[in-house]
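User: Could you go from structure to sequence for me? I need the amino acid at each position, not a summary. Structure tokens:
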């Protein structure tokens, strides 16, 4: 969870600091009003590579595992690839044009099932490859699924505003932090099966 959202954690942190920028423009795309017009450090392919390398180094130091570091890096880079599928033209290779995208946010009937399938498919993959290690495992899974679905529903169907102030990145950072904490709790209740 941390690796998958590292780029967005960085982006909203940079928005809060005034390093990267966004606007909310009604109707700019069908799924949301995000005009992510300035994000060269978090959403360029080069920037994503730097974040991936840094996170891989951290994971490698913590877990003393080249395999874990490589997987962490690949998960961070996958964020850019998934964003490429859905974003409007706002992703870059190295921070300057051309701006790239496939634009599935403009086709919610394709994008929303795809997004749900990827999120809950990844969760199902994880659950299938671990086993409960605690009586709290069912609760942790249930709470995680409900909160994840709730956050997604608010994103898709919640009230819209055009105001960009500190509350926007703080709300996003809070939501990502809560989901990350719940993912850590879920992981603490599960173990890999022994061979």
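Assistant: Here is the amino acid at each position, in order:
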């Amino acid at each position: 969870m941390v690796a998958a959202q590292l780029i967005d954690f960085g982006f909203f942190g940079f928005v809060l600091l005034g390093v990267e920028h966004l606007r909310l423009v009604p109707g700019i795309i069908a799924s949301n009003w995000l005009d992510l017009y300035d994000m060269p450090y978090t959403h360029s392919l080069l920037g994503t590579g730097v974040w991936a390398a840094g996170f891989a180094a951290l994971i490698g130091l913590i877990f003393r595992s080249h395999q874990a570091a490589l997987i962490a890096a690949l998960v961070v880079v996958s964020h850019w690839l998934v964003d490429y599928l859905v974003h409007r033209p706002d992703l870059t290779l190295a921070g300057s044009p051309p701006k790239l995208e496939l634009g599935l946010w403009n086709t919610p009937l394709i994008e929303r099932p795809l997004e749900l399938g990827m999120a809950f498919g990844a969760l199902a993959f994880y659950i299938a490859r671990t086993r409960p290690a605690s009586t709290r495992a069912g609760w942790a899974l249930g709470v995680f699924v409900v909160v994840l679905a709730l956050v997604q529903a608010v994103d898709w169907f919640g009230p819209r505003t055009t105001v960009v102030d500190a509350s926007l990145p703080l709300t996003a950072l809070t939501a990502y932090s809560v989901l990350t904490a719940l993912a850590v709790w879920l992981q603490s209740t599960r173990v890999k099966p022994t061979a």
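One structural detail worth keeping in mind: Residues 2-191 form one domain.
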